[in-house]
Amino acid sequence: MGNQEINQLRTLAVFHFVWAGLTLSLGIFAVIIYFAFGVGMIAGFALFAFENQMVLGIVGVVFIAVSIMASLAVGISAVLNLLTGIFLLKRKHRVFCIVTDAINCMNMPLGTALGISGIVILLKPDVKVLFN
User: Fold this and answer.
1) Angle at 92 between CA 73 and CA 101, to 5 degrees
2) What are the backbone angles phi and psi of residue 49, rounded to the nearest 5°?
3) Of the candidates 69, 93, 67, which has an alpha carbon nearest to the alpha carbon of residue 80?
4) At what angle do helices 3-43 and 53-90 cross, to 10 degrees?
5) How many angstroms separate the CA atoms of 19 and 118, rounded?
6) Are 53 and 85 in contact (CB under 8 A)?
7) Which residues contact 105 (CB under 8 A, 6 or more apart)?
8) Mean pLDDT by 10 residues, the chain (132 residues)
């Protein structure tokens, strides 16, 4: 047990901060696009002419609903990664960090790499001692 584990935790914390920023910036960009498509469909400015404008309005509402749910998911993911970075630096809440890394595994490919490396580091016995 030594400086190697502490350096790994610091590096992992920095990667969680970077991942939180990437998630927030790219996620919000995608949410804005979905929201704009939804508003455009409701307003009737579609690229394709439908005979029934009611269908277009319903699809627009669905796009807006999906964008709202996606913005919540993006925000929660960014906050979880930000908190995980802070907890890694303070060496607290190891289980929370493992759960966040497991959630990150769903975001291919960078989130998966971050999640797997985080889980591998956090399950080491020497790192476990640092959290106690």
Assistant:
1) 35
2) -85, 120
3) 93
4) 170
5) 12
6) no
7) 111, 112, 115, 116, 119
8) 84 94 89 86 66 73 89 92 95 93 92 93 90 81
What's the pLDDT at 45? 61
**Which pLDDT score is estimated for 16?**
95
Residue 31: predicted pLDDT: 86
Please state the pTM of the whole predicted model: 0.82
Please give the full DSSP string across the chain, using - where no structure is assigned.
--HHHHHHHHHHHHHHHHHHHHHHHHHHHHHHHHHHHHHHHHHT--SS--S-HHHHHHHHHHHHHHHHHHHHHHHHHHHHHHHHHHHHHHT--HHHHHHHHHHHTTSTTHHHHHHHHHHHHHTSHHHHHHH-
pLDDT at site 46: 54
| Structural tokens at position 74 | 């993006």
**Amino acid of residue 129:** V
Q: What is the pLDDT of residue 58?
A: 81
